[in-house]
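Collaborator request, handled under Task 6.
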Amino acid sequence: MTDGECAAVRGLLGGHPVFRLYFEAGLDAARAGERNRSVMIGRAGAGAVLAIEFDDVTVRTVIGRLADDELAAVCATDRRTELHVAEPLRPAVIELCVGRVLADQSIRYYARPVGDEPPPDPRCRRLAAADYETAAALFRAHHPSTIFSRWMLEDTLVGLVEGGSLVACGGVVIRNAGLSTVNLGNFLTIPEHRGRGLAKVVMAAVLASLAADGIRLATLGATAENRAACRSYEAMGFELIDQRAELVVGPG
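Structure tokens returned to the collaborator:
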């Protein structure tokens, strides 16, 4: 992207910490030779689309206003895709994706400052590339819609281990050092261990690691329909900063 195009996108993003993170981290990834991020700027310069491809799903976030044909192009996809759009666009996206909508829900964006965090629980450790199959099997068994890719293990993914078994996890999905900001995700506790506060223990370990790295803001997204998760994040100090429509669609 040219400097002018980058400036135009930054102007559209304003001060939204999640969208700014998506964009700046995407630029970092492109500079590093990765090809799983993309940006589309609308012809009128009033809107843009930020996209990232994971192993099994693409996420596209629409910012501002697009022409009708541009929005239609966003909705045309050859794989399972999450479309994150402003609430007023929900009906138009549903119409464009008729017969392909797998889930019609809302995503909540949360943020929390990272400061002086307590030391991590000794049951927690950072997962490594060798743990990929174990972590992937955990998600497949207990939350198959989780967005998880092998490259996420290059950053901080914390696992809580009891009796030699991984029983809970969570960590960083996107990071940008320049913004001192991360986006968190993949928090999961296996059913037989829920109700013990293990998600809070994992989150504390993640935040302690981030504080040591100089990160100052943690963000995350949760579907509004998952009220238990939203309440849990709010109890951990995360504050709601935005809510948008989230449409999960199949190829077409």
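The cover message to the collaborator said: "Residues 115-215 form a domain with the Aminopeptidase fold (CATH 3.40.630.30). The mean pLDDT is 96. Please let us know whether this matches your experimental observations."
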